[in-house]
Every structure is written in C-alpha cells, then in structure tokens.
Fold:
Amino acid sequence: MRAIHIPQILTAPNRTISLDVAEHLPELETLTPVIGEMSVTHEGTYLNVRAQANAIMTLECDRCLNSYNARIQVNASELVWLEEAAPEAGSVETEVELEDLVESLSPQGYFHPGEWLYEQMCLAIPQKQICRPGCQGIEVKNNPPQIEIDHRWAALSSLKQQLSE
Structure:
C-alpha cells in the first residue's frame, strides 16, 4: 500500500480516504491475502483510522506443537494525533508523561496504511495458540528408558557385583 500524504486527506470528499485491501502484507506470513476495508479521516488535529480485515495464517499449537490454520480478524480503530515532533534531546534521558505515550505524526507528513494494518494484524494473533479446545498436548509415555552399559565398563560392573555379594 502506498503512503498517504496527510494534507491530501483534507482535499478528499468528507476529508476521508477509503481503501479496499486485498494483498499480502510484507513481513506477515499469511496463506491468503489480507482482505478488508480501511478508512482514514482527517479530523483537524488527529486522524481517525478504522479497519476491518482478515486473513488465514498457519500457527503452531503451544500444547502439541502441530501446525494449524486460523483466521485472524481485525476490527480496529485508532486516533493518530497530528503534531510536530518535539526536538530530540540526544542521549539525555527525559521523563515521559503518560499522556505523551500516544501515536503522533507530523501534519505535513505521511501516513503508512500498510504498516498500520500490519501492526493491527500482529496484535490480533492469539497469545495462546491452541489448535482445538480439547488439545491434550504432547503424549508422554511412562516407559523408563533402557540404560545401555558401555561394553568397556562391563569388567568393572562384574567386579562391583562380586563386591556387593
């Protein structure tokens, strides 16, 4: 997806750019293309970004380690503030207030819808990847392992038996 120049959104009808998504996102391994809709609305001091999309991915079960296919769905919206970036302080440590921990872009910069959608898809991947509700995990057999004695120690083993008798 191409980057959108933020001032260009102001000239769009209703200050909104709508995008139909039907492509594979770089860095996101999916079996099917990411399919959905996305809209970016310029609200003066912020962008209102909304997306509905889905794709099928191959995941690995955390319990049994088998691969399985899962549909990843995104129904997300985010406000991206438009403000000029504060000057960098270099290597000096600065304290950051809680309200400063928001996404912000320059009002004259670019919004990258592909990157934003990639981030939302990554957040939608389940933390616990379980192939099915009744997955029992890897089957563990309780057979004790057979201990093989190195033939070079056979003489010492027979001497040990003689001493214990």
Q: What stands out?
A: The longest strand covers residues 67-82. The beta strands are 4-5, 16-23, 34-42, 46-60, 67-82, 104-105, 110-111. Residues 4-86+95-138 form one domain. Helices lie at 6-10, 113-124, 154-164.
